[in-house]
Amino acid sequence: MIRQYSFLIFVSVIIFAFFITFDADPQVETYRSITDTGTVKSVEMKENHLEIHTGKTLIKSYDKEQTVKPGDVITFSGKLMSSEYYIQKYQNHSYTTYLKARNINYISYPKSIEVKGHKKGIYSIRGRFTEILDTHIDRLYRSDSPIFKALFYGNKSELDEFTKTSFSRTGTAHILALSGFHTGIILVFINFALMSIPVRQRGSAACIILIIYAFLTGLRPSIIRAVVFFVIYYISFIKEQRYSLISSAFITAALMATVNPYYIYDVGYQLSFASVISIAIFMPVAQKYGIPSFISVTLSAQILTLPMVIYYFNVMPLTGVAANFLVIPLISLAMALFLVSMMFYAASLIIPFTFIFAKYVSHGAIMIKDLMLSVNIMFENLPYSYLENIETDIWKIGLYYGIILVIYKLWEIKIIKENLYEFEKLPKIIT
Q1: What is the DSSP string of 283-330?
Q2: Residue 190 main-chain phi, psi, to 5 deg
Q3: How far apart are CA 186 and CA 27, in angstroms?
Q4: From CA 337, how far away is CA 366, in angstroms rounded?
Q5: What are the distances in angstroms from CA 137 to CA 39, 143, 332?
Q6: CA distances from 269 to 212, 217, 321 (A)
Q7: Which helix (H) or strand (E) holds 389?
Q8: 387: which strand partners?
Q9: 101-134 pLDDT tens trace
Q10: For residue 138, what pLDDT is reported?
């Protein structure tokens, strides 16, 4: 029943979320000076400042010597602005909704931050775990560690701007943004590592590991989507019911928007579900005409996501499809080798000689990573490989989707007529 009405549920929730979140003229206090105390949830190093998330407040500290860890209880004083400040002052609705999608209602630019103590809990556990993980990746991969941190759990703070720009221009930036692609690689690795365990127990273990992984990555919308997808698939498998990718996408998107209506403005949320829905709709079309699965997945994902990439990033990657054909297999192999190397590295803490295996496998991961970067740069340097500074309007994107929908519906009608014709010919063939 839910499968049949999944699209209607999705549309209803999205419309409702839009109406309760859109406020052209918010009547709230937007600016004041405060002194407050809170527990640090996460800390992220940006190019020229430190972002400290505590409660529903995002603290932006420009003190380069500031040392704060997740779980620390801090007192801070200075300017405090509500997220609506950016609408009233700068007419910047997108940044306000970006903050709200991350459960941030205020931003503080503190004059001072003082650590009062440390509170053990879920945030300190995550912070300590990522700190230990960073140390071990740095030890094994040294100067190559930034890209593997970005690929594994989304820590892009150490990644240079040249690499980020290169991926953006070739249409492969989604590789650096945690998504179902990364979760899928980890899931394959889990299934391989636990292959001796019965399927049902393996599925339960994979669910638990993926939930821990989602927590490790900071519960990003794209990772939440991927984990929920797998859990729905696992439940369908247990109950021996047919799994529908597109229905799961609509239901998951609706659930996330119900929990936090501001998710609908999050670029990661939009691109994540657009790619899945695009694959679910257009991959069968591509396969019907004999296009191999790997190529059809990449092609299908581009159809609904390309307008969003142009709108949000002002870049149109003309060689994006070709670049993805080569880059995705390479990065998948690099990620697999990275996970194997980290497994050997963990074993070396108990059995020291396994560090040799970890080192050899890490060399392989680095070689594949270097090849992947070279391929990406090659595509970037091709003449007319991308167009920059492209601006488009919402109505143009709407028109694009409208045309795509009409073309798809016409194709559906054509297939139905062909099937009816074959069905009508069947009695004559039999007789």
Answers
A1: HHHHHHTT--HHHHHHHHHHHHHHHHHHHHH-EEETTHHHHHHHHHHH
A2: -60, -45
A3: 46
A4: 9
A5: 27, 10, 18
A6: 20, 15, 22
A7: none
A8: 316
A9: 888 888 888 888 888 989 888 888 888 888 888 8
A10: 92
Q: Residue 18 is which amino acid?
A: F
**Within the chain, which residues score under 50 in pLDDT?**
1, 24
Please report the domains of the chain, with CATH numbers, ordered by start residue: 31-119 (2.40.50.140), 128-388 (no CATH)
> Could you write out the DSSP letters of every residue in 317-374?
ETTHHHHHHHHHHHHHHHHHHHHHHHHHHHHHTTSTTHHHHHHHHHHHHHHHHHHHHH
To which residue do tokens 């670029």 refer?
267
Cβ burial 36-46 (10 Å sphere, 16+ → b, else e):
bebbbbbbeee
pTM of the model: 0.79
Cα separation of 168 and 359, whole Å? Answer: 31
Reference 108, options 73, 60, 48; nearest CA is: 60
Q: Which helix (H) or strand (E) holds 61?
A: strand 57-61
